[in-house]
Amino acid sequence: MLIIVLFAFTILVFGFKYGASDKDNELVILAASSLTDSFAELAQAFEADNPGIRVKLHFAGTQKLRTQVEQGVQADIFAAANQRHVQALVEQGLVSQPQVFAHNWLVLVVPEDNPAGIKTLKDLVKQHRLVLALPEVPVGSYSRQVLQKVEEDLGNNYAAKVLENLVSEETSVRNVLTKVALGEADAGFVYGTDLHSDLQDRVLAIPVPRKYNVQAGYYITKLIGSDSAAAQLFIDYVLSRKGQAILSGYGFQ
Amino acid sequence: MRKLQAVVIVPSLIMLLFFLVPLGAIFVNLDLMLFLAKLAQPIVYEALWLSIVTSLTSMILAAFLGTPLAYLLARGDFKGKVYLESLVDLPMVLPPAVAGVALLLTFGRNGLLGRYLPWSIPFSTAAVIIAQTFVAAPFFVRSAVNSFAMVDANLEKASLTLGVDSWRTFWRVTMPLSFPGLLGGAVMSWARALGEFGATIMFAGNLQGVTRTLPLAIYTAMESDLQAAMVIAGLMIMFSLLVLIFTRRVLRLSRGVAKCLR
Fold this sequence. Notes:
Chain A is built from nine helices and ten strands. By secondary structure, chain A is α/β, with parallel strands linked by helices.
């Protein structure tokens, strides 16, 4: 019996400790995977400028973070890599009106030794091992939009031919990059900003021409349940000249 | 006596509820029509078929290669046996992600062995089977070692002194007596293979009909279609429960047969 009581007690104590937090000085931010490096630096700079506030960052695919918000996760801010998922949350009354804070573009990446010899988007119809993110992941849907745009120009069933080479659908943009950097995949679409990560030396980037590219808008918003005063402070910081300078350092526009 | 009863019953109830409530929660949200409708979706039935084929293949591989190894470990007496046994157990205690990285570094295109292979393994159904066998085979080996060790060595000796050669003694004496343990081990390794997730998604990737097994389909469906995820989860629970009950029955039957033979 004693053991059970101790067990229950432990759960209660730790539950409180990690569940509820001191709202006044803690800020929980849910951010898209592609913001991993830039938001880490933003949070650090924000903490330095606002002593006493601690920022906790959770990174995952935008679609996954959306599900977490729908399931009632305790957080203050949501930074998403596309509009669709944020808009769905606005309609459900879970977040306030979002603001665009950055833009990103897609690039095609191949391993540095480029075993499949892919030099342009046209080469993607050749047999190779293509890795994309799932269609629900923002970068996965943008990648398919790029293929559609190329098809409108070239015709010839381009998109379907390219997708025949698809060997895996990853759950985040970082997983796509890793598979290419390891040389397991021959090609994949990631954001231009992902090339500012540790893996950049192991891949070659092939720019996607403007007329085919898709501009990815990043949206930031406050969760309705959040009563943190620091939330607005952080959003303002991201939109400020200082915040924007940090973001552009990672290739955001 | 009263006190003992309370001490036994209360924690047992808590433990049982702890298992049953979350498993039941999946079915509370399901109804038959939804279940059938989702079952007809390719993401569900292709994953089901792939999971059945790969997990059974992994189980058979584990049994074929694991039985001789288990016999060696149970009967053999050699230096460093303890270390060898620990090594065989290792994949059971490691996080599947470790297995995923290890397999990529071995069978990946630039891997230790993978670079010499004429075809590439990651992103193929073969990769799924390799990942499953890697994490599941130790469950078979562990159980087989135990059941070989429990066979009375005197029975084998008697058979040998009666002029039956060692090959036939193995098949006529050792195998039938250790069969329940071998079967139990095979089911455990099958169940582990069926549930394999971490090593598979890292090493084999995630593509419908090729590498997207049931656990990966749940994970993928969670990104877009929570109901499909619940249906697959419910499917796995029912499927696994049926196999476990079936095995219990067969085990009881074969134990009875073994007793009669003695």
